[in-house]
Design a protein that fits this description.
The complex is a heterotrimer of chains A (about 625), B (about 100) and C (about 180). With about 625 residues, chain A is mostly helical. Chain A has 26 helices and two strands. In chain A, strands 1-2 form a two-stranded antiparallel sheet. In chain B, helix 1 runs antiparallel to helix 2 (about 30-55) and helix 2 packs antiparallel against helix 3 (about 55-85). Classes of the chains: A mainly alpha (about 625), B mainly alpha (about 100), C mainly alpha (about 180).
Chain lengths: ~625, ~100, ~180
């Protein structure tokens, strides 16, 4: 089949168009929920199968990348910009994750959003998101990637603010979009620099251009930093992470798909794809690793005390993304993608499990009001527990393998690994294990803290939801055995290890396992049996607890430092001064001046005929004198 | 100064005097008569040029001006009559309806 | 001397007629009563007729006296007689624009004269043109300028219609 890559990308778009224009109120409600479910869930599954077929074809072709040009967008000057798609090992991994986990989440949503009145609109937006995400990962040039990048931002805005009648949720959607745009400014500048020096935006050609003896005449570090700014926006790193916790206002499957498994990994994918640049940009790589480590640590500290089940998972996502960037920063691009792959499984499972809990408790999201659910919703509990163990890094589950590789390379990589980086990353992992098990204990164990009505209605979720949870839990368990970094090694080589540190590998693995179990033990100690010890601990350090609970008040700081001055500027300078005084004043002033002039000139019209005749005579005299003086 | 120059100077003078009369005199009928004087001045210049060049154009135009002037007076006088019937005076300054 | 005089009689008469016409015209401006102004205008017109005759276009001179004096000025005199009684005695002759008007007129004449004198000397040089009579005039009037003739007749029709309209309006206004 000639256009199979284009087909993979376009099928979800077809789903969006069909559902958006037929099944919603906009289209007149022509088809029912059954049609929506079948098309919206079926088309991503078809995309997934086509992606598998493409992988087989790639293998047969000896891993030569498949390239397809779908459409020539523009021909400007002598340069043509095409929409073309590119399929190699990295793309195969990302596409399978996006379509596979995406299809599962679609099926889950069919159960979760069953009673929502905007069912069709939800699936239309979800399909739209999938279309843009596939365009992002399959695009050959940065331009196509950027279209997908912006598109997933749009879909994210639409889905976060899905229940837009609530102004807070709508505001969360706006915040996500605007913060993303700030990052995109850096992305665009990076693209402009690349195009100006290299004359092309095709990513394979860019990598090749940096892979030669004489480097192009652009600072790789500068381009790297600019592109990384875009990645901080999309992948929620410091300083542009503030939209992700607020994004939990959207439906839980949306949080699972977009803010755990796929969209937030777009930044990681971008840097991994353009590894050619970062291999020659030690300054930018150091920045990436530093910010990744800082974010991982920072977000983990906040997650220690959060009480909303989804917010804990949101900060956990930010922290795990930080770890991925640490891997990218030390040159272990394949390992970062490996963590994307395992993180997709266990984080999606966690989010969907949280959704199942919320569904069971009829909308309750505060973990302080949960407890004792292990026996009541056993399937949810079992899958949630497996996924928690995976994220904590308990062997032999998936998270252990990927996290361990990250920690190893952060310590021993010859491209920027250091003990300090490893310490920060390990501290973040310890805290991850702790707060995830804290979440598990407070939600599922102990005495029930639920209100009586809620407790009465607790029920297990339907098969469409629990089935997906089961699949994802199984993948979290066994997914780590597929050695992704070695699969990607031909195109994303693992960095060299400092020779002196070769022997530390086993020790570091041991330390990582110990830290995972330490987190489990600490959580069980503090939160088991009524959480009395945790409460005592909290009362002993009220200031620290308040600081962490308030997320270090970063949102308030941003509001004070950035939003308020901008608002002041817009209102005082641009609105009052610029618009009203200058523009309106000029226009109204001109009009008033014209009126005054006309008024004073109108006084000539006295109605006296002789005056008119005299003025005509005077005019003729002037005309004669002037003509004959100048002729 | 030969004939042509004298006549042209006279025509300019008659025209100027007529124009002055329109501006100066208050009586409406006198204003009309000054307008007739202007026409006469123009007629004179046309006849002079016709005589100078020997072509009949000027004479034809003069004839047509006679006709037009007559028609004009035939209408202007009744207008004046009707205006006078309203305000009972021939003073032009009392008629300021064109003001503004 | 008499022979000299008689030789240049037409030129002399021309100058005399011109002076008298100008004098009558100026008199028009200064006479107080409208009837006397009308008389001054009539005399101007007659002198102009004389000038036309001296130039050789006798038919134009005849038309001048017949139409202008005989129709237009007679009509004017009738109207003055009609409206004589309505004239209030107190109003002065001149409007408020006497001085500015006079100055403007002097400037006008000066500019016009200067411009023509220095700019177009060919205008005012005497040229010997062929004399033409009424036969030639009529022929050219009705063949070469027939369109102007027709348009003027249209104008006359329009004038008649306008006069009728004026009568109707005045009748409606005053019963």
């Amino acid at each position: 089949m000639k256009h199979v890559l284009t087909l993979i990308v376009v099928l979800p778009l077809v789903g969006f168009l069909l559902n958006g224009f037929l099944a919603t109120r906009f289209g007149g409600n022509r088809v029912g929920k059954g049609f929506v479910t079948v098309t919206a869930c079926g088309l991503p599954i078809v995309s997934f199968l086509l992606a598998v077929a493409c992988l087989v074809r790639l293998q047969e072709a000896g891993y030569q990348p498949l390239i397809e040009t779908a459409y020539t967008w523009a021909v400007i000057g002598g340069k043509s910009f095409e929409i073309s798609f590119y399929f190699d090992r990295l793309t195969a991994v990302m596409t399978l994750i996006v379509t596979g986990v995406g299809s599962l989440i679609h099926i889950y949503s069919a159960g979760y959003m069953k009673d929502d009145e905007s069912y069709a609109r939800y699936f239309a937006y979800l399909n739209l998101f999938l279309f843009f995400m596939l365009m992002l990962v399959l695009g050959r040039s940065l331009l196509v990637l950027f279209v997908g990048w912006e598109g997933v931002g749009l879909a994210s805005y639409l889905l976060i603010g899905f229940w837009f009648e609530d102004p807070e949720k709508a505001a969360a959607g706006k915040k996500a979009f605007i913060v993303n745009r700030i990052g995109d400014a850096g992305f665009l500048l990076g693209m402009f620099l690349l195009y100006q020096t290299l004359g092309t935006l095709d990513m394979d050609r860019i990598n090749a251009a940096f892979n030669v003896a004489t480097l192009p005449a652009v600072s790789a570090s500068l381009v790297g930093i600019l592109l990384f700014i875009g990645a901080t926006g999309k992948s929620a790193q410091i300083p542009l992470y503030v939209w992700l916790p607020d994004a939990m206002a959207g439906p839980t499957p949306v949080s699972a798909l977009i803010h755990a498994a796929t969209m937030v990994t777009a930044g990681v994918y971008l840097i991994a794809r353009l590894s050619g640049i970062y291999l020659h940009a030690p300054g930018a790589s150091a920045l990436v690793a530093g910010i990744g480590a800082a974010t991982a640590f920072f977000a983990a500290t906040i997650a220690l005390v959060q009480t909303d089940i989804k917010k804990v998972l949101a900060y956990s996502t930010v922290s795990q993304l930080g770890l991925m960037f640490v891997a990218l920063g030390v040159g272990a691009y394949g390992v970062a993608v490996f963590h994307v792959y395992t993180h997709a499984f266990f984080k999606a499972c966690l989010f969907l499990g949280a959704g199942s809990v919320i569904h069971a408790l009829s909308g309750e999201q505060d973990i302080m009001k949960m407890g004792g659910l292990a026996k009541k919703i056993p399937v949810t509990f079992a899958t949630f527990a497996i996924a928690t163990a995976a994220i904590a890094g308990i062997p032999p589950l998936a998270g252990f393998f990927s996290k361990d590789e990250i920690l190893w390379f952060s310590f021993a990589s010859a491209r920027g690994g250091s003990t300090f980086l490893w310490l920060v990353a390990s501290a973040a992992s310890l805290m991850t294990s702790f707060y995830m098990f804290r979440l598990l204990w407070l939600t599922f164990f102990g005495a029930s803290r639920m209100s009586h009505d809620v407790a009465h209605h607790v029920h297990e979720s339907p098969l469409s939801m629990t089935g997906v949870l089961g699949v994802l839990a199984a993948l979290s368990a066994i997914g780590g055995f597929f050695a992704l970094p070695h699969f990607l090694e031909p195109m994303l080589p693992l960095p060299d290890v400092v020779p002196a540190l070769h022997h530390c590998e086993k020790t570091l693995i041991g330390i990582a396992v110990v830290l995972a179990f330490a987190g489990l033990a600490a959580a069980a100690y503090l939160y088991g049996g009524g959480a009395r010890r945790a409460t005592t601990l909290r009362e002993r350090f009220p200031l620290a607890h308040g600081l962490l609970l308030g997320k270090y008040f970063i949102d308030e700081v941003y509001d004070f430092l950035i939003s308020r001055p901008l608002l002041w500027l817009s209102e005082r300078v641009f609105l009052r001064l610029g618009d009203r005084v200058l523009l309106d004043g000029t226009l109204n002033g001109l009009a008033a001046w014209a009126q005054r002039t006309a008024g004073s000139l109108g006084r000539i019209q006295t109605g006296n005929l002789q005056l008119y005749a005299f003025l005509a005579l005077a005019g003729v005299v002037v005309a004669l004198v002037w003509t004959w003086a100048h002729v | 100064m030969d004939k042509i120059q004298v006549l042209l100077a006279l025509s300019v003078a008659l025209f100027a005097v007529g124009l002055l009369g329109v501006v100066i005199r208050r009586n409406m009928l006198v204003m009309l008569m000054c307008m007739e004087l202007m026409l006469n001045g123009v007629n004179l210049s046309l006849v002079t040029f016709s005589h100078q060049l020997g072509s009949t154009v000027g004479a034809v135009l003069v004839f047509l001006i006679f006709v037009v002037a007559t028609a004009e007076i035939a209408i202007a006088i009744p207008i004046v009559l009707m205006l006078v019937r309203q305000k009972h005076t021939l003073d032009i300054n009392t008629f300021t309806n064109l003001k503004g | 001397m008499i022979e000299n005089l008689l030789q240049h009689l037409d030129t002399l008469l021309l100058y005399v007629f011109a002076a008298c016409a100008l004098l009558s015209a100026v008199l028009m401006l200064v006479l107080r009563q409208p009837m006397r102004v009308a008389m001054a205008l009539i005399s101007t017109m007659v002198f102009l007729g004389g000038i036309y005759g001296l130039l050789g276009v006798h038919f134009i001179a005849a038309f001048q006296v017949l139409i202008y004096v005989g129709a237009v000025m007679v009509f004017m005199v009738y109207v003055i007689m009609l409206l004589e009684v309505r004239e209030s005695a107190g109003t002065g002759r001149f409007s408020t624009l006497v001085i500015p008007g006079t100055i403007a007129t002097i400037l006008f004449v000066g500019a016009l004269g200067y411009g023509v004198w220095h700019g177009y000397p060919a205008l005012i040089k005497a040229a010997a043109g062929a004399r033409f009579g009424i036969a030639q005039f009529s022929i050219s009037f009705l063949t070469e300028y027939w369109l102007h003739f027709e348009l003027t007749s249209v104008l006359l029709v329009v004038a008649v219609v306008a006069a009728l309209a004026v009568i109707k309006v005045s009748r409606r206004a005053h019963g």
